[in-house]
Design brief:
The structure is a homodimer.
Chain A (H helix, E strand, L loop, with lengths): L12 E5 L4 H12 L3 E6 L2 H12 L9 E5 L5 H13 L8 E4 L14 H29 L4 E5 L15 H17 L6 E6 L3 E2 L1 H6 L5 H7 L5 E2 H13 L4 E3 L2 H9 L9 H28 L1 H10 L4
Parallel strand pairs in A: 1-2, 1-4, 2-3, 4-5, 5-6, 6-9, 7-8
Helix pairs in contact in A: 1-8, 3-4, 4-5, 9-10
Organism (chain B): Leucogyrophana mollusca
Protein name (chain B): NAD(P)-binding protein
Protein name (chain A): NAD(P)-binding protein
Chain lengths: ~300, ~325
């Protein structure tokens, strides 16, 4: 690990989904500053146009190609079409790095959910990234491109608690996909990375808070959170350093070390220290979360009564 | 230099751990769960793990409802259940329903409840599931979506329906999901299966926290290879390199797996395993899940600390060694 050459985005084509706001846009700006070509993909044309303006402001050289593509990413066909469109801007070549920042969360009580809340949770958390990874892996293998695929999970892909029963399954699923791809895409010389950000102060976060139960907010309050720029920076550093599982804050690092399973270590010695700390720290956190939930039972029963659940 | 301060650190650490176990672990004194006289609802109950579990709880005096798709398989399964009957009072029923959508999963649960005066079952075991290992690049869109349907949704919809019904009726029941060792890690061949099995883990952790609001317990089982009809089905598509990597897993019979699962539920374990290798993965991916036995988990974790990276390294070597052969395979299939 010490002597591995660092990855450098300069002169490479970096493809970023969810690139019109939040983490994706912050990352796009970051790699643009480092001299990369950037393609950003999202649904809304107007947001993409605003984002391109911000990218132009950090242009380093006249050769850099900044493009935006308006596509839905929740289905296989559109995700593949988006990638193809971005490749056309580069002589038909698939991008060198595909970073899937697209995704959203809608925290709510399980009992308040309808069928579509559960399915949408999987679509907006897992499929919006998986379809892109699927298209990218196939294209990279076809072209013999030894590229990178980077998925974006969440601290909630390492553990979960009340309010996230439609989101955590999706974020855990990304981890399962990353572990399978990490092994499988070795067959083609393609690297797989996965990032686990904590709370990020983004437009997505504001959207989340519209439905978030109070108890969920209380439990989350110990998470200081990151700005989109801080998160993007952690993500990029992790990719540059070749880390399979990337974290950007201490708390998530503790969860990562204690859920590492078979994932390659970032820093074996440091991980052992984290693991020791997590050994004591995480169960204490768990107990405090459980206490808060149990304390909330009475109030919750009244809530259900009011909503005519019974 | 590390060796100098390691023993005192280790001693202090072990002391803290013992103290911690003594004060926090109430599991030693918790009353064991007993299925006798309870209504146990098992999906995927016509073969494999589900049927083995059904027979096991029937022997322990439970009422059993098994759910699966194929009527004929269910009928054969009922005959086996009858052979395990302990008392004339036990109610054994079978319900043919698809479980890959919300509506049918809820209807299945309702049908089973009707056999018990409308009461929701006391314990819901979601053993339904299938796997189709193949190379990622060989997959079509539907292989990925089917992987999620057959690995995740076939259980999630049942858990969803069960949670709602148990809360409505104030039933302090149990919901048990069945993941896999491949829900704790993954390797080549399982890119449609592992996401689903990991997703179940995410669901279990969220439900474990959330269903505390209603006094409902959540458990999740991580079996290794099980020698079942499902396993035979898997092997039709399984790539050779996947089979090679798996060969270190001795596997369990469905009876052994069912026994481990039931024991875990009886002992109130949140995450249940039935073999040593999976236990090492569980201990090293425990995250925030409640511990089964703090001291033993620490030992497993220490072993896993060395053992799992060695395993990982050997798996990666297998895959890298396979590259040439794989390129030829892709050529033959006109992938390029």
């Amino acid at each position: 690990m010490f002597f591995k050459k660092k990855w450098n985005p300069r002169g490479l084509h970096v493809y970023i989904t969810g690139g019109s706001q939040g983490l994706g846009l912050a990352l796009a700006i970051l790699v643009a500053k480092k001299g990369a070509h950037v393609s950003i993909v999202a649904r809304t044309q107007s947001k993409l146009e605003k984002a391109l303006i911000e990218l132009e402001a950090v242009r380093q050289s006249p050769d850099q190609i900044f493009r935006s593509y308006s596509f839905a990413l929740d289905n296989a066909e559109s995700s593949a079409a988006a990638l193809k469109a971005a490749s056309e801007g580069h002589g038909g070549q698939v991008p060198d790095a595909v970073i899937t920042c697209a995704g959203a969360s809608k925290p709510m009580f399980l009992l308040d959910m309808e069928e579509q809340d559960l399915t949408q949770g999987m679509i907006n958390g897992y499929w919006v990234q998986a379809w892109t990874a699927f298209a990218a892996a196939k294209q990279m293998a076809r072209e013999g491109k030894k590229g990178k695929i980077v998925l974006v999970s969440s601290t909630l892909g390492f553990m979960s608690f009340v309010g996230y029963s439609s989101y955590s399954p999706a974020k855990h699923a990304l981890r399962g996909l990353a572990e399978a791809l990490h092994s499988e895409l070795m067959l083609y010389g393609i690297d797989t990375h996965i990032f686990f950000p904590p709370t990020m102060y983004t437009p997505g976060f504001d959207e989340e808070n519209k439905t978030k139960p109070a108890i969920t907010r209380t439990i989350e309050s110990t998470d200081e959170g990151l700005t989109a720029e801080q998160a993007a920076s952690a993500l990029l550093i992790g990719v540059e350093n070749g880390e399979a599982h990337i974290t950007g804050d201490l708390i998530t690092s503790l969860f990562r070390a204690s859920t590492r399973g078979a994932a390659p270590r970032s820093n074996a010695a440091l991980d052992v220290v984290y693991d020791f700390i997590a050994l004591i720290g995480v169960p204490i956190w768990r107990r405090s979360v459980d206490k808060q939930v149990l304390a909330h039972r009475e109030e919750h029963q009244q809530y259900l009564q009011k909503k005519g659940f019974f």
